[in-house]
Structure prediction request, 632 residues.
Amino acid sequence: MQMLTKTGLWKGTWSALWLASLLSKSTILISALLMSSMAHANLTIEITRGSDQALPIAVVPFATEGAPSEDVAQIIQDNLERSGFFSPLERNAIFESPDQAEDVQFGTWRSLDVRYLVVGRVTETGGGYRIEYDLMDVSGQRQMLGETITAESGNLRGAAHLASDQIFEAITDIRGAFSTRIAYVTAEGVGNAMQFGLYVADADGRNSQQVLTSDEPILSPDWSPDGRKLAYVSFETERPAIYIQEVDSGRRVRATSFEGLNSAPAWSPDGRKLAMSLSKDGQPDIYVMDIANRSFERLTQSNSIDTEPDWAPDGRSLLFTSDRSGAPQIYRYTLGSGETQRLTFTGDYNARGRFSPDGEELFLIHRSKQGFQVARQNLESGRLVVISETQRDESPSVAPNGTMVIFATQQGGNGVLSAVSADGRSSFRLPSPQGDIREPAWSPFLN
Amino acid sequence: MQLKPFARSLAIALSLVVIAGCSSTGGTQDGDSYGTQGAAGTGTSSGSTTGAGAGGQYGSTSGTSGTSAGQQADSRIPEVRTIHFDYDRDSIKSEYESVVMAHARYLRSNPNAQVVLHGHTDERGTREYNMALGERRANAVQRFLNIQGVSPSQMSVVSYGEERPAARGQAEQAYSQNRRVVFNY
Prediction:
């Protein structure tokens, strides 16, 4: 077997030796993400639980000049609803269509129990669009935002996500995360006849693009802090190895391929290091690799499984899973002092911890009476709360603004992605168009 | 974990029973046993490979397999190449010791033969933790083979964790098939 196709832009200064090392025994296909969206792989969203505390908002269909390729108001409305913070008025309940602040009759919207209102218009310009919108506080009868966004013709969705971010932040005081992306893995087949794919898509599941396909497993994607690279594990040489790949160009290098496990890569907040689990010295332990000079520091030396590292936002400590107590629990290792502290004590299975962006909480997989579920634990109080309603959950990944956690679960025997708000009040699902979809990784802020 | 001394001597005793019972033509003829694929013509070959990989599923592995002759059996890769494990355990179940012993004999008799031990888990729990559990299972088999005199240079371990299930489904029947170590030559 050999590399069949390679369309990545292999220019630049990356070592030819490294490139040669990529020629593998398995069928590999790397695509360069040349904006060739794989329509068939787009994910659609189903809201599965709405929050009872969601704010009522109306997004009036935008007036249009020309023929915009996307329904901008609908994209904004869907984003706001998915966040769990908002409960948008259904379109068929909207019977006035103002398109600018001056035309808004506040009484109309007050009578519909709407607290916020978005109106706007999309104008086709030479080679693109101009989006103008206004955000109104209905109860305060005032304008909160009046923005103009210009978009290239192919990026109307991106403009709608940016407007969603601005609206979200103006109302909640929390930075919006609608202009982010998710990486995920697809899998089809069973046993020796399987196909795996690594994809990235917009946070709403659209614009999905293939990063890598293989007939050997791919797992554990993790975004670099600048949102431009992914580290992941691929078995394409019929052994596990950790790769680092530039998402847009497709260029990549093999970071590690030690004997034994090469598992669970996690970028440090400064982007210079990669924590991982390696078993080259016996049992799986946590190591930190300096990406530039390829040196390794071994953090743990226990006679147990130590894996699934995650960096604290301040880069001074790491979480990891260890079964040193006899069952998997989450520990925290402090760099410098080397102090290791057990964090989880509720139940006999807690694994794959991920810090919240403020470093005050962790999200993890907890085995409850119902099964494997996403839980949140406050680091100060130690209190653990299950926040998902599904039972076969894996791989929680936190949105960069900390409001949602995306994770893998199952629906009707197939792997699907699901997301739940950090408070557990609302959730949505991203079913797979075919096969299993798993291993979600939420990107950092990209703008 | 490691076999207790009693289990080890039991395994050796069992294997002696197997060899002792070899003269009969009996044994289950369901394809699990080595030596059933027409012993003719391949007497001299060293480790003629039969079908790839996933051969030998579970099934009768009770050590009653019919072989034509011990020596000849050791010149062929044993056909049962998968052994199964209990949930969250990496100990080799007594019913599979004869399988591992057969591989030990084959590897000892064929010092140039190489085996890659693939460790697998069922889907429950997190993927990376399962990756480590799968390695633990494969390591347990490697240690067993080593104790049986197989050279470490003939063996390597790759864990697939829960990434390559042999069966799909969310019931114990699928789970039990997926918790396995596969001998890949």
Summary: Residues 97 and 103 of chain A are 9 Å apart (CA to CA). The radius of gyration of chain A is 23 Å. The helical segments of chain A are 16-22, 72-82, 106-111, 156-172.
